Amino acid sequence: MSRTPDDAPFMPLPIAVTTVSDSRTEVNDTSGSLLRDKLESAGHTLVEQVICKDDVYQLRALFSRWIADPDVRVVLSTGGTGITGRDSTPEAIAPLFDKTIEGFGELFRQISFQEIGASTVQSRAIAGIANGTLLFCLPGSTGACRTAWDQILGPQLDSRTRPCNFAQLIARFNEQ
């Protein structure tokens, strides 16, 4: 990854964050807090931060509201991507995608393998685009969120990252 600040200006993005959990609160939501702190430290704007129950219909309603909001360009979700009976984030969100970004989950698991070994196969991290909004569904662990931000999201949401990044493409997502 190469950053060349002289070539392109930084473009702050409006980002929403949700923690998918039946047990987290504002006090103990370390993953959501980490994502908020990382995006704000990078110069982006937090539009809204919500804790949402791991319920397919509540998740779809929340994501749909953000997808329809022109003031939200990126949604970061943490939690609900595992393989237990209550983990339903991919099932809730994938039907909303206009396009799936297959490489995100693939790359996340590749990087994660270096940190946690074969346990990474339990992650169903996914990403896509809906109505010009980038949607990223991350595991609920704080370490996984840190890995995703530091290795993938931070650079890809930075308009200065070369050779290319999501930030510079957002304006073109709804081209006909």
UniProtKB/TrEMBL annotation:
Residues 16-160 form the MoaB/Mog domain. InterPro entries: MoaB, MoaB/Mog-like_dom_sf, MoaB/Mog_dom, MoaB_proteobac. Pathway: Cofactor biosynthesis; molybdopterin biosynthesis. GO terms for cellular component: cytosol. CDD domains: MogA_MoaB. Pfam families: MoCF_biosynth. SMART domains: MoCF_biosynth (SM00852). Keywords: Molybdenum cofactor biosynthesis. May be involved in the biosynthesis of molybdopterin. This is Molybdenum cofactor biosynthesis protein B. It comes from Halochromatium glycolicum.
